[in-house]
Amino acid sequence: MLGWVITCHDEQAQEMLIKLEARFGPLAQCRAVNYWQGLSTNMLSRMMCDALHETDTGEGVIFLTDKSGAAPYRAASLLSHKHDCCEVISGINPPLLELMYPQRELLSSAEFRHAIVAQGEPGVSSLWHQQQKNPPFVLLHDLYKN
Length: 146
What we know:
The protein is globular. Strands 2-1-3-4-5 form a five-stranded mixed beta sheet, with helices on both faces. Helix 2 crosses helix 3. The chain is 43% helix and 17% strand. The chain is an alpha/beta fold and 146 residues long. The mean pLDDT is 91. The chain has six helices and five strands; from the N terminus they run E-H-E-H-E-H-E-H-H-E-H.
């Protein structure tokens, strides 16, 4: 089963987790990380790293963030590059999470990424999808070659 780390501004992450638990009962491998104004990026990264390790059983972890490019999204992006099967999704909301919850047990992390972006509104995206729009910089020639 895929682990979920819900991370949003203020108390939104905890509120989403509470709504999911009210509908589905206690959620295994699911943590909320709230990003409060004034919280350092270092502390946010530590909290998210802890949540990643608490939710990962080897099948993958999905970081679910509220805003693309904001501090929780950036911290999740940096963590995702260090771990296999990690995905970063932005633009989440409670109805979308309720719809996607059953898919945690059925899909791989990459399949889940595609499914949630396809189900979501235009504001839902992933780090992978954003990277496809802006491929990495590649040198066309070697300046130091003889």
